[in-house]
Amino acid sequence: MVEASPETEAHFTEYAIEEFLVRDEPYYRPIGDEIELFTAAYRQHIPVLLKGPTGCGKTRFVEYMAWQLGRPLAVVKEQSNELKEGEIRVPLV
Predict the structure, then answer these.
(1) What tens digit of pLDDT does each residue of 54-76 get?
(2) What is the DSSP letter of 82?
(3) Of 44, 67, 72, 78, which one has the fewest beta carbons inside 10 Å?
(4) Which domain holds residue 47?
(5) 26 part of a folded domain
(6) Is residue 10 included in any domain, yes or no?
């Protein structure tokens, strides 16, 4: 049997995916046509990447759009239950 060297060993990380419905309308105040753009992209099955500084409203917008579209919101996180420093939860619609 051939053993792999430490440099060539594969590393795997397990992720847990949690899905939930946003039952109550989240507060969201549009600043442009982002709702229409996101809805059009959703209908055409076009992926959307949201980029911005911490606290600018990316997660809130995704929660609002999940509620608006009646879709479950999925959160992807590492299998371990504890948050590491700087770790984030990734919401998906």
Answers:
(1) 999 999 999 999 999 999 998 87
(2) S
(3) 44
(4) 15-92
(5) yes
(6) no
